[in-house]
Structures are given as structure tokens and as C-alpha cells.
Amino acid sequence: MDKKKKICLITSGAIELAIVIFVITVSILVTVTFNDPDVYANYQQLNLEKNGPFIGWLQNNPTYFLFIILIPIFVILALDIIYLVLVATKRGTNLSDEEQAAIAEQAKKEAREELLKELRQEKEDRK
């Protein structure tokens, strides 16, 4: 892997890690500090007062919570899975087709020789 590609992967990994940590932290805060509408009549005002403007706003607007917090984490997960599959399939083998054919031919030859040895041994044992 060349130096430029390695730097690009490290940078994108660091950015992805920062986004994931931020998203998980915010989602935990939104979930844990939510004021239940069944308990409090003015739960939206309490969310804003107790939890700050950003967390309170996300608690009061679940659609924005979905688009700002949940969808990015699912997109990152999907991209990571795609990248993992690409890397796994790319690293399947480093041998050329000729080398693979030579290895297969050598394995067949060794298997034939071993089989012939076993057959000769069986003939000798029968006598």
C-alpha cells in the first residue's frame, strides 16, 4: 500500500471514529435524560431546560434525531461492511493463474504417486 493511500485510510478512519463516538454519546444522552410525556405535562420545556438546547431539541424532534444521529451511524456501518467485503475478496490470493495451475498439477501428481504406492503395497500384502 502506498503512503498516500495509507494516510487517506488513517484520516478517514479517525474521522469515522470521531463521528461514531459523537453519535453514540449524543444518542445515550438523548435516551437517558428524556423526560417522559406521561409524567410531565410540559416535558418539551423540561427537556430544553434540563438537557440543554441541542439535546433537548433532539428529544423534542425525533425526526431530526433520526436524520442527524441514526442514519449517519447506519451509513457508516454499511460503508464499513462494503469495505470489509472488498478487502476480503481482494486479498483472496497473491498467486498468478500459472502458479495456481502449477500447484494444482503438483498436487495431482503427488496424489497419483501416493495412490500407486498404496495399490502396490496392497498387492504385496495379498501375496
Describe this structure in words.
With 127 residues, the protein is mainly alpha-helical. It has 2 domains: 3-92; 95-127. 84% of the residues lie in helices and 0% in strands. It has 4 helices and no strands. It has helices at residues 3-32, 43-60, 62-90, 97-126. The radius of gyration is 31 Å and the shape is elongated. The N and C termini lie far apart (62 Å).
Count of beta strands = 0
Instruction: Indicate the proportion of strand residues.
Output: under 5%
Q: Based on helices, strands and strand pairing, what is the structural class?
A: mainly alpha
Describe the main β-sheet briefly. Answer: none
How would you sum up the global shape? Answer: elongated
Radius of gyration: 31 Å
Number of helices: 4
Give me the strand/helix succession: HHHH
Give the overall average pLDDT: 88
Helix content: over 70%
Q: Report the span from N to C terminus.
A: 62 Å
- Poorly predicted sequence stretches spanning 5 or more consecutive residues: none
**Tally of structural domains:** 2
